[in-house]
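Input.
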Amino acid sequence: MAKKKRPKRQRREIIRINDKIRANRVRVLAPDGAQLGVMDLRDAVKAAKERGLTLVEVAGKVDPPVCQIVDYGKWRYDQSKRKKKKDTTTKMKEVKFRVRTEEHDYNIKMGRLEEFLDSGFKVRVQLQFRGRENAHKELGVEVLKKVKEDAKLMGNCDQEPRIAGRAVNMVLSPLPKGQRKRRFKLIHGDLIDPDEDYEDEDEDFEDDDHADDDHAEDADHSDDED
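Output.
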């Protein structure tokens, strides 16, 4: 049996202060951000302690490292607030379709799209064209319009379907939590209580080649009868 890979541990952020700073010379910033110039580490630490403050390394990968004299408790609080704000920034997920996505696959993709919206993510919906599909890009726009209609109980359309090169893109954002209503919730890949009004809509995207085959079969039957 193949061994399961252990998830990588996130590295803890190391904050160096005062004598824990490794460089011998540092560029020092005052509490208000004003530059105090390059100093020996010992002098910089002394300057911080004389003010009743702490010398913190804020940019250790430059030469010389940049350090700032700060109220350490307040500085840590401000840093944690910035990190929390960054972590809660809305991220974008993506779901891809094809012009001729089969109904079963379409339902699965819609279930995934609803899952993203229900988790509070924005979703970029993309459809890429292949070969001769590039000559009928309006079909791709119609597919995304159908996606938009099917997802209207879960999200708003921030960007209408827009053709860009060999693809068409659309962006959806989640509705407020209390207004969301899922239609494509999945159990083992199957659609729960599908809405019957939507079952036959894929016929609009029937392959022209299949239509030609049907005509050819009709012609063959006619010849046999003759």
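Confidence is low (pLDDT under 50) at residues 191-222.
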